[in-house]
Amino acid sequence: MLTSGARPLESRVGIRLLPPRIAAKIAAGEVIIRPSSVVKELLENSLDAGAKRVETCIERGGKALVRVSDNGEGIARDELQLAVQRFATSKLADAGDLERIQSYGFRGEALASMAEVSELVIESQRPDAESGVLLKINAGKITGRKEIVRTPGTTVSVRNLFFNLPARRAFLRSEAYERRLVLEKVRDYALIEPSVRFEVSNPSGTILAFPPTRSWIERVQEVLPELKNVELIEFKETHRLLSIEGFMARPDQAVQLRRRQKIFFNSRPVLYRSIYRAVMEGFGPQPGNLVPFFILKLTAPPQMLDANIHPTKIEVRYRDERFLFDFLSQAIRKAVHKEAVKTLKFPAYPSSLRTDEKIERQIPIPASPPSTPPSSMPKTPVSTPHLETKGYPETHTGFWQLQNLYILAQTYSGLIIVDQHAAHERILYEEMLERLGSSPRQRLLFPLIVDLSAEEFATFEEIAGDLKDLGFEAKVFGPNQLIVETLPADAKMGPGELRQLFREFAETNEVKLGNRDKMAALIACKAAIKAGSSLSQAEMESLINRLFRCKTPFFCPHGRPTVIKFTMDDLAKRFGRI
Fold first, then answer.
1. Helix or strand or coil: residue 211?
2. How many Cβ atoms from other residues are within 10 Å of residue 379's Cβ?
């Protein structure tokens, strides 16, 4: 009888080689995990064979049958039997070829793995051959071979997956679940191969059908029809070591689509954590720190990408992670900023006192906010730099304030609504961090005295240097008492906000650890324009101009939206016009 923690005697036998049949089944389990794994490997084989039509048929979610047929170049008669052996491949000749891989498959394990754990039938014929071959394999053993005549291409049928591995088969889930994974896999390859026709069927009929499209965006909207009603931001950047192309949802629509991100690296659908982080860095914070919706295609020279780190090739590794992160995040930040600039285009305001001609107007955007008393926004335009926009007559009331909370503005494409507090938060946050140590600040004519608790005072002593770099200067005035002499430029804080700020400093671990980003976010929140504050036209114009100068203008530092955009199509749908 075994005592607690003791090992079975079988684990103490000497080291020995596994029998080939057992080793083959273990290896098969690393590559073929479920029906969708079969579909993935067969789709890749078809695409590598140059197929322009790939048809997939499944029964019972793929557990009873997965059949993939294509019109590719087929397999030569004398090579078909070799194709189902482990490590048989036409993609590699020597180890150096691993750095030049441009095909989907190259390890020579997929067909052999399927053959070990199913009842497999392969039939194939090349275009230049008068006949082809049909091969039957059961649990790794060839049980039949005959000559056939068929259209050029290949059909692989995988029946009763894991019939000889009941423990593995027991881990498969419901037919509906396995079917969903199969369909998702087909969608992935349809997304990245727009010139290929993909179909999926079951005994009841066709489930999916994606005809070839002329452009990538057509295929994206075909595979993900929910994107047809979404305003997408396109981005594209090219470098000799890396090219990227893709689409993001407009920031105010991104949250509802966040679970549909897609990454393709050298045409492979992959998971890549660094890419998710780079997208978040470029896009800006999201509510709950969620990744925004995006679909991304990256292309790199084969020697820059290691696709051999995982048996199923679902993970890859780029040689220069730092370059990848910086290049991608900057490209996305540039695209988001371009969208912001596009948003800030105002149409001419119709007036009976003027002709219908459009008036060109320069809306100035200050390089940095001038030092002004906290009670007012800057009212004198700064000459440089500026955005060139289509404007309106000087007598036009171009911005509207709703309930002293939101700023509304008409644009060429519709309407934007800006949350004045969240927008001002973003502005202050970026201006504080952009020039640490020399950030814009305002010296108070009447310094503010703030009483703190012992813990709050101790926190201040730890972070006083960091606060000074952010434009926030204070000195000890008495026991647990400060006198605040300088605030970040344009900050609007009184004694009440200052007491709340130091309370939050003391309660936030990131602040105690010297996280300046967190300090700046908390300061911006307390210093921003409050809800209920009435703004003049000049103040609203200045706020919007400065917001769209920010690197990530669509979200406040806490991830809350600053801008909501309504296109004319959005409004027409709401009013039932279309």
1. coil
2. 13
SS (H, E, C) 87-152: CCCCCCCCHHHHHHCCCCCCCCCHHHHHHHCCEEEEEEECCCCCCEEEEEEECCEEEEEEEECCCC
- The conformational region for residue 447 under phi > 0 = left, psi -120 to 50 = alpha, else beta, is beta
Q: Establish if 217 belongs to a structural domain.
A: no
Q: Are residues 387 and 492 both part of a single domain?
A: yes
What's the whole-number mean pLDDT along residues 234-241? 91
382 and 482 assigned to the same domain: yes
Contact 122, 142 (CB under 8 A): no
pLDDT, mean over the chain: 80
Q: Which of 550, 546, 566 is nearest to 412 (CA)?
A: 566
CA distance from start to end of the chain: 77
Domain-embedded: residue 10: no
Say whether both 234 and 203 belong to one domain.
no
User: What is the predicted pLDDT for the residue at 17?
Assistant: 60
pLDDT for res 396: 38
Angle separating helix axes 454-469 and 516-527, nearest 10 degrees: 100
Clarify whether residues 374 and 329 are in a common domain: no
Half-sphere exposure of 91 (CA within 13 A, CB side): 19
| Domain termination residue (choose one: 342, 369, 388) | 342
Looking at the structure, tell me whether residues 188 and 255 fall in a common domain: no
Checking if the pLDDT of 160 tops 90, the result is: yes
Q: How many domains does the structure of the chain reveal? A: 3
pLDDT of residue 190: 96
Buried b (16+ CB within 10 A) or exposed e, 19-30: eeeeebbebbbe
Select from 173, 177, 176, 160 the least CA-distant residue to 115: 160
Structure tokens that stand for 327 in this block = 């290049």
- Same domain as 193, residue 45: yes
Q: Please name the amino acid found at residue 112.
A: A
Return the higher-pLDDT residue of 515 and 258: 515
Cα distance between residue 195 and residue 51, in whole Å: 10
pTM above 0.85, yes or no: no
* Domain span at 458: 354-578
Q: Which residue has the higher pLDDT, 401 or 89?
A: 401
Give me the pLDDT at residue 68, please. 97
